[in-house]
Write a structure and sequence with these properties.
- By secondary structure, the chain is of the alpha+beta class.
- The protein folds into 2 domains: 21-187, Beta-Lactamase (2-Layer Sandwich), CATH 3.30.450; 290-564, Methyl-accepting chemotaxis protein (Helix Hairpins, Orthogonal Bundle), CATH 1.10.287.950.
- The chain contains 9 helices and 8 strands.
- The chain has helices spanning 5-56, 84-93, 125-133, 175-226, 236-240, 243-348, 354-413, 418-471, 480-564, and strands spanning 63-65, 71-73, 77-78, 96-101, 104-108, 138-145, 148-158, 165-174.
- The protein has a 5-stranded antiparallel β-sheet.
- Strand 7 (148-158) and strand 8 (165-174) form a beta hairpin.
- Helix 1 runs antiparallel to helix 2, helix 1 (5-56) runs antiparallel to helix 4 (175-226) and helix 4 packs across helix 6.
- The protein is rod-shaped and about 220 Å long.
- It starts with a helix and ends in a 5-residue tail after the last helix.
- It is found in: Cell membrane.
């Protein structure tokens, strides 16, 4: 069963007082007993000394026992049958007194049941041993005399002349008197203690009632606050009260006001939290849609990059074939140069042998035909290079457009699209580099076609000259100067072909390097597109996770608002 606060307070106050009162009674009883014993001892000793001094101050003679059995002190003072001293002690000091000569009582106030004095009786051996034998004072608390227990004090009686112990002087008081006195004192102490306890009980009851009533009001207020009632009022008397109860009331008021402010702040914060949750949800939806657009754009860029890489590789292979052809052309030009030199030498020897000149003309015609065919092949390869370069330029333009779109979408995404914007800018830069490289390829190819056309024209001229030379072989002698001049022109043409072939070979090396660079760039574009696609997928996962968190945030905000509605402000 639950105890009331008043009962608990009374218990806490009275229980220590009762325990302390019990301890006080017990300790006081012990102290009383010891004090009484000490006081009785002192009083009995003083009475014994006073009684003995009465005899000693009467005269300075020794104590003697006469032949008739009486005891006297000198001739002037007879002790036997003179009870004035012991009776005076009994009347005034309220103690019994006995004079012992040796161990025998000769004077006493103690009487038997018949009213006769206990004359002639002897002291106990224990008393005799302490007083007569050892000459010491002896205090005893439970000596039994004539069936009655006494507190007794014995002092030795000594001869004035020698100091020898010849007897004892006893003073005593019955234990019943002492016990009655002690019991009376004990009862007084008990009544006083009970009176103090009762007074404390009344005071404690009043204070407990006041405190418990104030605390009950504070508890009721706290319960109302706990149930959400923040409009509850607090008793003014409790607020003005001193002590812990007043502190409790003031603390309760402070708690109520703090909760009012706290709940108000929480309400405002919850509203802001709810609004933020809805805004975050809308932002996430927009971000998710933007991310999907970016992902599609990245996929298109990736496909374009893969196509660019494939076509660049194909262009690289064709340019390598063209390079091999150009190398063959250079070799043939070297041969043509050798043949031209040979023609010149043969022209110098034309006069010696016409047949040798005819043979040289045939070789020249064959070489010219081969050069013409190779030059035409070179023109066709240059046209294919131009087409491949146009394809690369188209891909670069598409890549540039896609990177521009990606940059726009990244800008729309804000902070989350910053990383993607960097990738898009890099792709745009690579596309611009690819476009510049294509322009260089077109420039080189145009130069190659121009040089090839010039070479064809020159070769046609050489062919006409050689044919004409062949037709006029018979007239070699007559036309020797013309033939010699034609050979000189042929040598010059061959030198021009050699120069153009060297330029074409250098252009071939440059084109191969450019195409290889384009191939590497295309591969990098494809890898960057794949990395961007992976980053976009991670971004989608993050957006999904944030969306779940935003939904949970809205639920928490709704629950918080429901809890706040329980409070009355």
């Amino acid at each position: 069963m639950k105890k009331s606060l008043k009962t608990q307070i009374l218990t806490l106050v009275l229980l220590p007082i009762i325990i302390l009162g019990g301890i006080t009674i017990i300790t006081s009883n012990v102290s009383l007993k010891k004090g009484m014993y000490d006081e009785i001892k002192a009083e009995l000793r003083a009475s014994a000394v006073a009684g003995l001094h009465t005899y000693e101050y009467a005269n300075t003679a020794d104590y003697v026992k006469n032949q008739d059995g009486t005891v006297s002190k000198g001739e002037a003072l007879t002790l036997s049958n003179d009870y004035s001293v012991v009776d005076n002690l009994k009347d005034n000091a309220k103690v019994d007194a006995t004079f012992f000569y040796q161990e025998e009582r000769i004077l006493t106030t103690i009487k038997d049941s018949s009213g006769n004095r206990l004359i002639g009786t002897k002291a106990s051996n224990e008393v005799v041993n302490h007083v007569l034998d050892q000459g010491k004072d002896y205090f005893v608390t439970d000596i039994k005399i004539n069936g009655t227990k006494y507190f007794g004090y014995y002092i030795p009686v000594k001869q004035p002349s020698s100091g020898d112990v010849i007897g004892m002087f006893f003073t005593g008081i019955s234990q019943s008197k002492v016990n009655n006195l002690m019991n009376h004192i004990r009862m007084q102490m008990i009544f006083i203690t009970l009176g103090v306890i009762v007074v404390f009980f009344v005071i404690s009851y009043i204070l407990a009632h006041i405190i418990s009533r104030s605390i009950k009001r504070s508890v009721a207020t706290l319960e109302a606050v706990a149930e959400g009632n923040l409009e509850v009022e607090i008793n003014e008397l409790d607020l003005k009260g001193a002590g812990e109860a007043g502190d409790c009331a003031r603390a309760t008021l402070k708690l109520r006001d703090s909760l009012r402010k706290m709940i108000g702040d929480i309400t405002e914060t919850s509203k802001i939290l709810t609004d933020s949750a809805y805004i975050l949800d809308e932002t996430i939806e927009q971000t998710s849609a933007t991310t999907e657009d970016v992902e599609r754009a990245i996929e298109e860029i990736s496909n374009g990059a893969m196509t660019q890489a494939s076509e660049t590789q194909e262009a690289k292979d064709k340019i390598i074939v063209m390079g091999n052809m150009i190398a063959d052309t250079v070799a043939e030009v070297d041969k043509l140069n050798t043949n031209s030199e040979y023609m010149k030498n043969t022209g110098n020897e034309a006069l010696k042998t016409l047949l040798e000149l005819q043979e040289s003309n045939e070789k020249t015609i064959t070489a010219m035909t081969t050069i013409e065919n190779q030059t035409n092949t070179t023109n066709e390869s240059a046209q294919e290079i131009r087409q491949a370069a146009e394809i690369i330029a188209s891909i670069a333009r598409e890549t540039n457009l896609l990177s521009l779109n990606a940059s726009i979408e990244a800008a729309r995404a804000g902070e989350q699209g910053r990383g993607f914007a960097v990738v898009a800018a890099q792709i745009q830069k690579l596309a611009e580099q690819s476009n510049d490289s294509v322009k260089q390829i077109n420039s080189v190819v145009n130069n190659l076609l121009q040089d090839s056309n010039q070479t064809v024209q020159t070769m046609n001229e050489v062919k006409d000259i050689v044919l004409e030379q062949s037709n006029h072989v018979i007239r070699t002698k007559e036309m020797f100067e013309n033939v010699s001049e034609g050979i000189t022109v042929s040598i010059e043409g061959v030198n021009q072909i050699a120069e153009k072939s060297n330029v074409l070979d250098e252009s071939r090396s440059t084109i191969i390097d450019i195409v290889q660079g384009l191939s590497a760039i295309a591969e990098e574009n494809a890898a960057s597109a794949e990395e961007t696609s992976a980053a976009t997928e991670e971004l989608n996962a993050t957006v999904t996770e944030i969306s779940g968190s935003a939904e949970e945030l809205k639920k928490i905000s709704d629950r918080l608002m429901e809890d706040i509605k329980k409070f009355k402000m």
